[in-house]
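User: ok so my PI wants both of these folded by tonight, can you help

Assistant: No problem, let's get them done. Here's the first:
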Amino acid sequence: MIVSPDETYTVADVAKILRKSSRQIQRYLDTGLLKGQRRRGPWQITAIALWKYQGIDQEMLDLWVTYCCRMAQRDA
């Protein structure tokens, strides 16, 4: 499935994706190992932040650009 780099996830979502506990994801956020934002509520982690943590950000961005270009050509 193609996901936009600015798609946001909750701590629970990321825990499920990474097969870690929510508490472990919270620790990653607290230490800066995983980047996220917290604005008057729960943490929000973008897909690009998750990809950077996984070390696959460039590959995923390349796939995203390719996907967008193909969609634009199809619509033209």
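One down. Here's the second:
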Amino acid sequence: MRGEDDLRRKLATIMVADIVGFSRLAANDEDWTIRALGEFRAVVDEIIARHDGRIFNTGGDSVLAEFASPVEAVRCAVDFQEAARSRNLLQPRDRQLRFRIGINLGDVMVRGTDLLGDGVNVAARLEGLAEPGGICVSGTVWDQIQNKISVGYVDIGEQSVKNIPRPIRAYQLRLDGSVGEITGGVAPVSAPALVAAPPAKGGRRSALFGALAGAFAVAGIAIVAWQFWLRSEPPAITVTPAATPPAAIQPAPVIPPAALPTHAEATPTPAPVTPAPAPVTPAAAAPAAVPHATMRDCPHCPQMMVLPAGRFLMGADTAERARFRMPAVIAGFDQPQHPVTIAKPFALATHDITRGEFAAFVTATGYHPAAGCTTLVGRRWVENPTASWENPGYPQSENDPVVCVNLADMRAYLGWLLKVTGKPYRLPSEAEWEYAARAGTTTTYYWGDDPDKVCQYENVGDQTAHEKFPGVPAMACRDGFATTAPVGSFRPNPWGLYDMLGNIARMTADCWHPNYDGAPADGSAWSTGDCALHPTRGAPFEAGRPAEFRSAARRREGREIRRDRVGFRPALSLP
């Protein structure tokens, strides 16, 4: 019979989490730091238990937990970092609790309820290699999770770490856009992988930390059924060529508007660039107004448009809802209509991130979005393991919007922009998106109330799509594109923003709510609710019902889902 001090061995997955800058936080306000850690403990305990984990050691500001499955350990770490990130949204930067997490699958020694040995030590060293807000896993873990968990990664190669006699193969998982905040360990090179230098930290504090009772644990992955978008399986096609999208604008100074019009008073402004011609019937020019400033922070950075502060009515009124046959699944999503004030100017990209722009990020960082993308097969959404942002299942050019990317991929791209520019690029809130899409208008669409003019302004389900996909409900007009169009192929909205209501759906920063009851009135993102889902804005290329491409239309998407009709567009907070 074994005594409590007897040692035995087993294979286990070990997760080590440690707070970044604990000593600094404690030095600034020790009472608050200890209290915040104590509050956050309940959240972490629940997350670990939900993933069948067991905490076997705590102390100081770290925690050590074991899992039977590497997949569950990584899922736990993702939810852990999401909960911490959600908490930090409500805190000033000097009071944010950010964690590094390391995960290893290896042989451990068991003594009572404690675990010891190299299997634990390697996890601790991987935690030291992790980025703030990030996760670093060993090669043994990666071998078990690849193609099972939808996260991006960077292979940082073999790492020599303290007190471990052999190099450790390591992978950085990209989750929260912290690629620009590396404080030690990993240094990018021009090759499509990153090479790590020795860790900047010395000995790590032993384990413990707590967790926030006011924060929430993020819900599990939800694959959203966009039932009213289900179509027949798209055959392989050749997209009708389009002219080159608008040329790059030289950076212009950020000029806050002298007058900040209300939603009812706002005067539409023309685009600061000439849109590329598209195979559509010409439309009347937008009313003239003072052009907005544009800027581009680096050669591969997106062109940004500075938008004015102002007020508008978000959502649809009951009369608009009554005019359309909205499926029951979305009825009420855009209700109740409510006023929103955008107190400060902000910037939004003039077009969606393109495949070329995303490829520049991949080349610069070695980031690898996981393979697999959800596509339509018949009338069902099916995971296609071979589809990806480079091959979404239909032809695209470098100027088409990137799709088959999930929230982690988007945040990694935005984190790269932060690293390159030092500016806080982010996803727009839902309110910011609708404010920008409306561009000072109060009509159903930014061009008016007539849906039949859509082909002059947006790529949606039209006769071109209907010819390729006979089962697709279609508008009577023809826009010339059956799938995605190169960005800027259509007329912009009155503020010079392209493709705001069509081409693809875009992820926003908010957590999902099925209506606007209690929605923020200041234009900020909704940080509570179902954070496993996020609202999307804009209708994809095969959406052929007038209700689907309204300025107020909104849908939802799972944060970990990669879909062949979903992409993103950055926003930027201004000083």
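The domain at 261-575 is CATH 3.90.1580.10 (paralog of FGE (formylglycine-generating enzyme)). The first strand starts at residue 8 and ends at 19. Good luck tonight!
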